[in-house]
Structures are given as C-alpha cells and as structure tokens.
C-alpha cells in the first residue's frame, strides 16, 4: 500500500485508552483558554480566520492522518460550502446557523458523491481523482450563475443568530465561531478515539489485514471521507460568514495544497498538529503579506525543511520528545 | 499594523509650524504588489498618491497626510481583511486603487460599513456604481461599460461594422461580450459570431482561425490579462492584422502593449482613460513619475493621482476628515487635474471624464520604448459611461 508506506514513518504510536488521557484533557482546557483570550490579543477577524483554517486542517487530518487517504481536492468541499452558505444567507436570508448548516450539508453530499468514486482507487490515483473532481467543482463555481463567477458572492449579510442575537460585531461573532471550531475539533477527536477510529487506523496501517479480519474497508473509508468533507464544509461555510464573502480563492486548487501544508507542518495524525499548522501558515501569510510573492517561496522553503528535518511536523516532534501523543 | 509596508509621507510637520486647525488624514493604497497587476497598479500607485500629496502641497495647507500600502494578492478575503484592519485599528480614512473586481466589491462593502471613503481606480466592474453601489464609493478611471461603449462604438463608427468575439468563458468575458454587442448593434454594426475559449487559455489557434474564417472586419477580444496578451501574440503569428482584420482589445493597459511590443500589437485598438503622451500636463507628470518608477504611469496609476488630488481638495474645503462631508464635497466640486482634465462625479460615485480610442503604432512610427499609442478619437464622458438612470444604483436614484 503506497499510502500506508507514506504514513507509517511519520506517525507517533497512538495507544487506545478508554476516555481522554489526563494530559490531553489539560491540553484541551489550555487550548480553550488560549482561544478565549485570542481575540483580545490579535485582531478578531484574523483570529476567526485562524479558527476556520484550524477546523479545515483538522478535517483534512481526519482523512489523511487517521484514514491514510491523501486527498488533493479538499478545496471543493471548503469552497462549495462557503458558496452555498453565502447564497443562503444573502438570497434566502437564512440565519447564520442555518446558512452554515446548509453549506455543511452540501459539502457532505458532495463528499458522498466524490468519495464513493474516489475510494475505489488508492495512493496517487486516489489523490488524482480527488483533484480532478475538485477542478470540476472549481470550473462549476467559475461558470455557475449563483456564484458570481470571478466576482464571487459579495456583501453576504451576517443575520441575527437564531433570529434573535445580533452578530454584526466581530468580537461577538468570534465566540460563535469559536464554539463551532472547538466543537468540531472535539467531535473529530471523539471520532478518532472511537472504535470506528481504531478500525480506520488499522486500515491505514494494513488494509489487506483489515479486510481479512472481516471489515468492510470501503465503507469505513467512505464514512471517513464524508466526515472529513463535512467538517471541511463546516469550516468553509463559517469562513464565508466571517468575511462576508465567498470567492474562487476558497475553491481553487491552491487551497487544497495549503491545507496539506498546514497538516503536514503541524503534524499529521496528531490532535493539535493541524491547529498549530493552520495558525503558523495563516499567521505567516498575514504578517508577511508585505513580502508579496516571497511568502509562497518562504512557505515552500519551510515545507522542504519540514520534510527533511522533522517529518512528524511541529507537534509530532514535540510529541516524540514528551513521549506522549498530543 | 506593523506588518504592512509603511510609507510615511509628510507625517511630521514641526509642531510649531502646524496650524491650529491641522487635519490628519491617512491614505491606504491597497493593490496587487506582486501578481499580474503589480505593473499597472502596485508600487506605482503608491508613488502616484505621494506625488498628488506633494503637488497639492498638503502640509502647507494644514493637512498632514500619511500613506500606507499593502498587497491584497488579488484575493477578496485578504483585501477585506486588510480593509477592516485599516479602518478599525489604523484609522485609515480612505482606501485607494484596489484593482480586480472581486476585491474592489469586497472593499466597497467594508468601506460602507465603516462609513469611510473608497476611491477605486484599478477595478473594471461597473457594478461598483450600479447594482453594488455605495454612497462611500468613488469609481475613478474606467469601467466595463465604458470600455465596451468606447471601443464598440468608436470602432463601429470608424467603419468596423462586422464583429467576431473571442470571449473568455466566464462571467466577466460574457458580460463584456454582451455589453459590446449591444453597443455595436446600436451603432448599426453586426456581430457575425463569437467563440468562447476556456479561462485561463493558452492555445488560441483554433479560435483565432474561426475568427479569421468569419470574415468579420473586427475581432473583439472579450478577455483580460494574460489571455488577451496571448491571443494577440498568436493572432500576430497568423498574420491576422496584416491580412486586413482589426483586433479590438476590450480591456488592455499600456503595460500589456509594452510587453507585447509594437511589432506584435500594431493596429490594435483599445479604449483608455489616460495616455502619458497626450498633452503637456500628462507629459510633465509622466516624466517625474517615470524618473521614480521606471515606466510611465498606467491609466490606473493616473487615476490614483487624480483621485487623491481631488480628495485632498475636498478635505481642504471641508476642513476636517468627516467622510460624509468630504464625499458630498467631492461630488459637488468639479474634478480638474492635469491628467484627466475637467470632469465631475455623479451621485452614484461614477467619475465622468473623457475616454480615448487609441491605436497601437506600427514599429516604424514609434520613436521610443513607450511611444506606443496614437489617438484615434475622443469619446466624451457622457457617451462613454452608462447613464445613471440605467445603472440601477438604488440610493442615487432615490434622491
């Protein structure tokens, strides 16, 4: 299996324990504390952007780190969900939670369709199939009426939450986004540490053996693909509410690449890795923006250095030093 | 924000010399500093804004101006994020330039939300003063309607009465084709057909052969950027212009023509709001500009200069940085500068000034590296831009 060969080296051993280990409980509490304080330290919109990408990377990590499936088309779910969410909020006048749900549901459906075809192939073919579908989604977004082509969907309103609570203030909305992201991350943690997650890991490590043990491998793969697409969609839909817009950037293939970078840099197959990776990449893009095209070059260099020196990613290395799964 | 490139201009006048009623204004130039539009906007626009401040002699008039700039990478989410931070945290009063339609529309909305001022020069979409108009938006240099109107009308009237379109297959391309078709037909011309090419495209040969076979006198290029440049290059390889058909670029800048070279682009017709070699005023400005930037100003950069100048005049007249009063003043005062001549700003924020139909010179006519265009005709502002009544800008029509 080419996928398992790739992942075996990089992954710290994950032992199955009942409930959350104590150090991970502490980590989640600390994470919540940091995220609660974040908007008071940095610009709230920037903080929300970090959250959206953290969730996106976590969703991607669910598929790559735990399912061992490298998708090169996650921008499709991220972007399409952001379009549908923006359309729902702007044209149908839905409240944020319903609009985000609509976007997420679209991503789930898209994930089901693409996933059921893509999981029939493995390794590089799987990656190429997902990329091909993502390109189809991109050109759909470019051509379709409702997406506004290259202008995107602009001035998307942020309606009152549940029709009652005004959300126009960025700081207020931050805590809504925080609830979504934190909930999403906990949910992904729950998935990966469930019996279902254990089966996924066994498929990742040795697919033929999982088959011989009687698991319907393709069903597990499809399930994790759809779950990953759904959370990617949740992140994308939330992002369109944060920025009041949905655009081709979100559905472009570079976005698929960025999420791979975030996950690998932070540490694939770890809980905290994608969050750290997303924070690092988004911060770099934001604070080095004045360097223009050099940002991409710097990103590339960091990626090369990361692959050569610490293949486990930032959190992977930390986890190895501390000898605890993070 | 510390992360943004700072260009501080005339910020610190001696405290003693500052009049008691000094107004502080902060200009933010937000554009593409690294991508495909960096040449026609980019740092050149920052220089243009600074030259406007210097030419206006803002300091002596009691206005302290600070200019900051940032790269929006042509991504609307980055643009809207920067605009938000500028208005929210950095007390920026006005955002200038902002090329590409998607980023401009995003910034227009953020500006309205914060009730600041947005003087756009770089973006093409006419929606900025139509369906998506905002009371805080001023759209300076050009728009798709003016390009379609200018090139479509002038070329048809000049005898190019049969057209064939080469259209980029996405919303912008189709909109440009539709608008130009309407203009061509209204002026007695005929559209023989069109072909949509994938966006972005690299190989235009089959589309160009179709265009050639159509026998149309004019081939309209309803695309932009690299697509336009590539289609013109390949048309030159087929000898389409030499064979008697004319190319009409619907969205083309002097920088594109320069990179194509007069040899390849000769005979190409295009509409522009500004050309550096028009009169003494534009030449004087362009000479100073070129000394600093290395290339003469594009129409986008010229628009940033003119917009900044007009804004500063309004600030002086109002005597504060109150956005609403300044916008009202800007729309009330006639615009008048060396680059665009006299004009005015409509209620919907559209700046009305003359546009020009230009033709790319043949290599033997050209006397210098940048001596690329010759004027074919002048299109008056009223003819070039779409009437406000047809625009669908709700707040302007309600008044």
UniProtKB/TrEMBL annotation, chain A:
<feature type="transmembrane region" description="Helical">
    <location>
        <begin position="259"/>
        <end position="281"/>
    </location>
</feature>
<feature type="transmembrane region" description="Helical">
    <location>
        <begin position="26"/>
        <end position="46"/>
    </location>
</feature>
<dbReference type="GO" id="GO:0015658">
    <property type="term" value="F:branched-chain amino acid transmembrane transporter activity"/>
</dbReference>
<keyword id="KW-0472">Membrane</keyword>
<dbReference type="GO" id="GO:0005886">
    <property type="term" value="C:plasma membrane"/>
</dbReference>
<feature type="transmembrane region" description="Helical">
    <location>
        <begin position="53"/>
        <end position="78"/>
    </location>
</feature>
<dbReference type="InterPro" id="IPR043428">
    <property type="entry name" value="LivM-like"/>
</dbReference>
<dbReference type="Pfam" id="PF02653">
    <property type="entry name" value="BPD_transp_2"/>
</dbReference>
<keyword id="KW-1003">Cell membrane</keyword>
<feature type="transmembrane region" description="Helical">
    <location>
        <begin position="222"/>
        <end position="239"/>
    </location>
</feature>
<keyword id="KW-0812">Transmembrane</keyword>
<feature type="transmembrane region" description="Helical">
    <location>
        <begin position="98"/>
        <end position="117"/>
    </location>
</feature>
<feature type="transmembrane region" description="Helical">
    <location>
        <begin position="171"/>
        <end position="191"/>
    </location>
</feature>
<dbReference type="InterPro" id="IPR001851">
    <property type="entry name" value="ABC_transp_permease"/>
</dbReference>
<protein>
    <submittedName>
        <fullName>Branched-chain amino acid ABC transporter permease</fullName>
    </submittedName>
</protein>
<keyword id="KW-1133">Transmembrane helix</keyword>
<feature type="transmembrane region" description="Helical">
    <location>
        <begin position="124"/>
        <end position="141"/>
    </location>
</feature>
<feature type="transmembrane region" description="Helical">
    <location>
        <begin position="288"/>
        <end position="310"/>
    </location>
</feature>
């Amino acid at each position: 299996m080419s996928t398992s060969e790739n992942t075996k080296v990089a992954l710290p051993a994950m032992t199955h324990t009942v409930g959350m280990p104590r150090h991970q409980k502490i980590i989640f509490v600390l994470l919540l504390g940091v995220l609660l304080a974040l908007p008071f330290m940095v610009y709230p919109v920037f903080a929300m952007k970090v959250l959206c990408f953290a969730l996106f990377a976590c969703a991607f990590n669910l598929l790559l780190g735990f399912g061992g499936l490298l998708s090169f088309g996650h921008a499709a779910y991220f972007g399409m969900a952001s379009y549908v969410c923006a359309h729902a909020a702007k044209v149908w006048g839905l409240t944020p939670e319903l609009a985000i749900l609509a976007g997420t549901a679209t991503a789930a459906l898209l994930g089901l369709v693409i996933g059921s075809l893509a999981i029939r192939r493995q390794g590089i073919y799987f990656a190429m199939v997902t990329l091909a579908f993502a390109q189809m989604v991109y050109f759909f977004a470019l051509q379709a009426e409702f997406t506004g082509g290259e202008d995107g969907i602009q001035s998307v309103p942020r309606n009152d939450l549940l029709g009652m609570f005004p959300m126009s203030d960025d700081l207020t909305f931050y805590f809504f986004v925080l609830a979504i992201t934190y909930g999403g991350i906990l949910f992904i943690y729950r998935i990966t540490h469930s019996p279902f997650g254990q089966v996924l890991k066994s498929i990742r490590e040795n697919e033929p053996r999982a088959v011989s043990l009687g698991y319907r491998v393709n069903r597990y793969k499809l399930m994790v693909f759809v779950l990953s697409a759904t959370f990617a969609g949740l992140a994308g839909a939330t992002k369109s509410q944060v920025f009041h817009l949905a655009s081709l950037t979100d559905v472009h293939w570079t976005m698929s690449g960025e999420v791979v970078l975030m996950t690998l840099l932070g540490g694939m197959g770890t809980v905290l890795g994608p969050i750290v990776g997303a924070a690092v990449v988004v911060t770099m893009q934001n604070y080095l923006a004045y360097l223009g095209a050099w940002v991409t070059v710097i990103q590339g260099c960091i990626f090369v250095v990361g692959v050569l020196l610490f293949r486990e990613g930032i959190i992977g290395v930390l986890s190895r030093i501390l000898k605890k799964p993070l | 924000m510390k992360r943004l490139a700072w260009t501080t201009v005339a910020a610190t006048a001696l405290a003693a010399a500052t009049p008691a009623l000094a107004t502080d204004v902060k200009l933010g130039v937000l554009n593409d500093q690294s991508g495909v539009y960096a040449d026609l906007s980019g740092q050149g626009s920052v220089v243009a804004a600074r030259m406007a401040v210097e030419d206006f002699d803002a300091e002596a008039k009691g206005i302290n101006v600070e200019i900051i700039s940032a790269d929006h990478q042509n991504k609307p989410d980055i643009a809207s994020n920067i605009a938000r931070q500028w208005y929210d945290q950095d007390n920026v009063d006005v955002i200038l330039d902002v090329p590409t339609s998607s980023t401009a529309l995003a910034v227009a909305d953020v500006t309205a939300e914060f009730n600041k001022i947005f003087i756009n020069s770089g973006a093409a979409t006419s929606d900025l003063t139509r369906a998506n108009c905002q009371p805080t938006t001023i759209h300076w240099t050009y728009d798709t309607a003016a390009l379609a109107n200018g090139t479509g009308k002038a070329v048809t009237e000049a005898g190019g009465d049969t057209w064939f379109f080469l259209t980029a297959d996405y919303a912008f391309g189709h909109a440009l084709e539709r608008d130009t078709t309407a203009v061509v037909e209204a002026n007695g011309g005929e559209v023989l057909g069109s072909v949509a090419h994938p966006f972005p495209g690299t190989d235009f040969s089959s589309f160009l052969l179709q265009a050639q076979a159509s026998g149309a006198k004019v081939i309209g290029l309803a695309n932009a950027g690299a697509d336009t440049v590539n289609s013109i290059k390949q048309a030159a390889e087929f000898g389409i212009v030499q064979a008697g058909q004319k190319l009409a670029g619907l969205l083309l800048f002097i920088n594109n023509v320069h990179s194509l070279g007069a040899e390849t682009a000769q005979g190409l017709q295009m509409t522009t709001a500004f050309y550096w070699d028009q009169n003494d005023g534009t030449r004087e400005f362009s000479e100073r500009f070129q000394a600093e930037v290395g290339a003469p100003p594009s129409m986008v950069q010229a628009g940033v200069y003119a917009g900044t100048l007009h804004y500063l005049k309004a600030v002086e007249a109002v005597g504060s940085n109150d956005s609403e009063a300044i916008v009202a003043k800007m729309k009330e005062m006639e615009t008048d500068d060396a680059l665009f001549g006299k004009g005015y700003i409509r209620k919907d924020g559209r700046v009305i000034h003359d546009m020009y139909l230009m033709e790319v010179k043949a290599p033997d006519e050209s006397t210098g590296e940048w001596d690329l265009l010759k004027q074919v005709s002048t299109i008056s502002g009223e003819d070039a831009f779409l009437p406000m009544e047809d625009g669908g800008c709700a707040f302007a029509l309600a008044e």
